[in-house]
Known about the structure:
Distance between the termini: 19 Å
Largest sheet: none
Strand content: under 5%
Keywords: Membrane, Transmembrane, Transmembrane helix
Protein name: Magnesium citrate secondary transporter
Transmembrane segments: 12-34, 40-57, 64-85, 97-114
Order of helices and strands: HHHH
Amino acid sequence: MTVFKNPWFLTAATLFWINQLLEKVFVVFIPFVHAYLDDLMAMPVVLGITLQVYRWIHPAKSRFTFTWTQVLIAVLYFSFLFEWLLPKYSNLYTSDYWDILAYAIGAIFFYYLINVPSQKKPSHENP
Length: 127
């Protein structure tokens, strides 16, 4: 199964895009959702898309998965970028340490539900 067909990835991406549609097009802001949903869905969506790209180009194809260390580095990178560096230089960003928790929860969600190897054998291995 490709990442793009994984129901957990589709749920995360759909929630993210619905929230963006509500905020950007309909100008509807639900306070708690506005503050944390995008941060919660960031790791499943970004790492899910990245995982799919790796599966297209890596020799292991659909069996390729990210290690826990790689996922942790993504959380640290997002935390550094969006919660420390960008708020320092732009008023468009606000540092909120609860966002780091949201990134971590999203990363755990990604690691256990989306970052799974496909059970299907590559076509060259089928009898």
